Amino acid sequence: MPALITRMGKRLRRLIERPGSAELTRYEALLPEIGELEAELDGLSDTELTERAGKLRLEAEFAEAQLVELCALGREAARRALDERAFDVQLLGTMGLLTGHVVQMETGEGKTLSGALAAAGYALQGRRVHVTTVNDYLARRDAEWMKPVYDLLGVSVGWIEPSLTRDERREAYANDVTYGAVSEIGFDVLRDRLITRVEELAQPEPEVAIIDEADSVLVDEARVPLVMAGSVDHATADVEVANVVRRLRLGLHYETDSDGRNAWLTTAGASVVEKALGGIDLYGDAGSERLAAVNVALHAHALLTRDVDYIVRDGKVHLINTSRGRIAELQRWPDGLQAAVEAKEQLPATDRGEILDSITVQALMARYPQVAGMTGTAVAVAEQLREFYKLEVAVIPPNTPNVREDHSDRIFASPSHKLRAIEAEIREVHETGRPILVGTQDVAESEELAEKLAKVDLPCVVLNARNDAEEAAIIAEAGTYGAVTVSTQMAGRGTDIRLGGADGKDRERVAELGGLHVIGTARYPSSRLDGQLRGRSGRQGDPGSAVFFASLNDELVLSNAPDVPDGIHADDDTGEISDPAAQRQINHAQRVAEGVHLEIHRNTWRYTRLIEHQRRELLDHRDQLLRTDLAVTKLKEAAAKRFEELAESLDEDALDHVCREIMLFHLDQLWSDHLAYLTDVRESIHLRAIARETPLDEFHRLAIPEFHKIIPAIEERSVKTLEEAEIGEDGVDLSASGVRRPSSTWTYLVHDSPFDSDFEQTLKQVRSLLKRGKD
């Protein structure tokens, strides 16, 4: 009876502390068995250890006995290779991953090793594993760091990064375990969609995905699809329009909505623009092209801010991924907007492109029969992980209890009052010698704060998108005695902050002072992001503290809960507010923001389910064309005379390739056209809601018949191309017949998701119509 009461008490405590999490009691019971094998494995040579791990390759699935063996072998391999003995909680995390959970492990608890042992376990089952991370640096670092462990377990490992060639990527994916940023893996999937020979494939069919920082990847990154484009020709921007728009003023010539997603000309603004452009009528038929140019230039001018949304470096516009605070490599906005921003910054326009393909994170993860993940903040999104991915969260207790002090928010009436208080807080803490990490919202804020600190003789190290290449080295030293580090949103995530610096030599000195002090300059749009910043302090039972400063005029409040209740008063001298109503308002604004993001995620999922179904169906057809003689058979039947003419001049293999090249080109082109059509449909479909029709149903009604036209059109266009193809000394000249693939590809970063809520999209359309009617 006492044992039963103890078990019931543990379950009740787990439900209270970890709502929505899975039960791991059965795996906790295996930990003593794992410990009992330590002495035995310690007596093995490295070769014997590797051979013993190799015996697990005979098992397609791991029962409890195999889990015990793997964890014991992994602990021994890590002890020898890294001089790190895995804690029981790390092995519990490994078992959670091997059973398909998203495990929640606090910062500094050793997720990297847990993930590596799980990846090795899956690999020893004969399954190909991708370990996805949030950036390319972490992919390489973790693969190189864990390689000695993998070697001892007889498992091969590699990584991918943007600089790799096609052959190098193929080699990396050929390993048992491959590390890579989720975006890079996704774009390789899209690139493989364009190959014309089987041997060009980079990625073999995937089997297991282990996702590091799973909440960031599966929730934050999932609102916007990965989109790949190819160059068409040189872009042109309307420089005259850019110069006109540059002179417009907010409130007089144009207005923006509260969430900063839309901008439109006022009547006065339209008049100024029309006059400056030679007296044209922007809203007449003749002015429609200039109106489109004005709208996109206004978007670039009013809604995209240098050092917040992008930076200019080496004479080029580099986009900033707002969820990470880093440069979004090889990414850009859709063409008109990209060219408009380049014109705004008086830079030459880059190549124009067309969308070749896109994939959502949900669809990317659906390619893997087995998915697991790890993060420090999973419980907060447990329902989303279950709804969108059918994944359950398992909470792993910390090895050492967390003793970090999380202070209540300090709230101020205005950003200027808040900034003065932040400066005072930094000065006061810095004078004690405690290291300080300040988390800011964007590049501009980080640099503004650094300038102000420098003026009052408080030097700091700044980490943002301008120097993201050095982020690991910078963040690793953030725990040094007397250090002040100012960082954009979660830059350096994935790198431990050790008290006393990277070498830990001053650890005891810093610990005695209270450890790392974390300051947030504003609450983030998600409580998870707040938790992630706080989590940089208090690693593995270290002392530490965290506090957020906030203002009722912060962007979070203005965009999501601007109607602040009357009667909230601030201190006349400091501007600080102690009224609990202010805290409730900020918490409410954050919940609204979280709700908006959830609805965008849900809407993305609703609309892209059909697109993904169509994509899979067309890819099956493409795979047939790629791997079989279907293309030859089809064209031989439909254009027999022309086919015979070519068969006098080409050998069989060359003719097969010509037929395949033609049909694959038209399939890819028609799919690109279909995506463009669906984008147009999405931009107007919400007006159906005004007529009390369901936009999603209407989207399906329009999208399905158009898709069914693609395969017949492929054959029709291919026959025409074959009949018009010119034959020269080097064979068939397909480029003369328009069969030309893009010379380069890149990816699009879309801040304003094409799958906002139906209600929000409808409001945009109505606002536009009403404005045009008024003007």
UniProtKB/TrEMBL annotation:
Limits of the SecA family profile domain: 9-581
Top-rank taxon: Bacteria
UniProt key word Iron: no
Gene3D superfamilies in alphabetical order: Helical scaffold and wing domains of SecA, P-loop containing nucleotide triphosphate hydrolases, SecA, preprotein cross-linking domain
Domain Helicase C-terminal: start-end pairs: 421-581
GO molecular function terms listed in the Swiss-Prot or TrEMBL record: ATP binding; protein-exporting ATPase activity
Main location: membrane
Keywords on record: ATP-binding, Cell membrane, Cytoplasm, Membrane, Nucleotide-binding, Protein transport, Translocase, Translocation, Transport
Pfam families referenced in this protein's UniProt entry, alphabetically: P-loop_SecA (PF21090), SecA_DEAD (PF07517), SecA_PP_bind (PF01043), SecA_SW (PF07516)
Residue numbers binding ATP: 90, 108-112, 496
Catalysed reactions, semicolon-separated: ATP + H2O + cellular proteinSide 1 = ADP + phosphate + cellular proteinSide 2
EC number: 7.4.2.8
Manganese found in the keyword field: no
Enzyme class, UniProt record, top EC level: translocase
One GO cellular component term: plasma membrane
GO biological process, one term: protein targeting
Residue ranges the record marks as coiled coil: none
Helicase ATP-binding domain location: 92-250
Membrane topology field: Peripheral membrane protein
Entry's localization field: Cell membrane; Cytoplasm; Membrane
Protein task: Part of the Sec protein translocase complex. Interacts with the SecYEG preprotein conducting channel. Has a central role in coupling the hydrolysis of ATP to the transfer of proteins into and across the cell membrane, serving as an ATP-driven molecular motor driving the stepwise translocation of polypeptide chains across the membrane.
Subunit note: Monomer and homodimer. Part of the essential Sec protein translocation apparatus which comprises SecA, SecYEG and auxiliary proteins SecDF. Other proteins may also be involved.
Family to which the UniProt record says this protein belongs: Belongs to the SecA family.
Annotated protein name in UniProt: Protein translocase subunit SecA
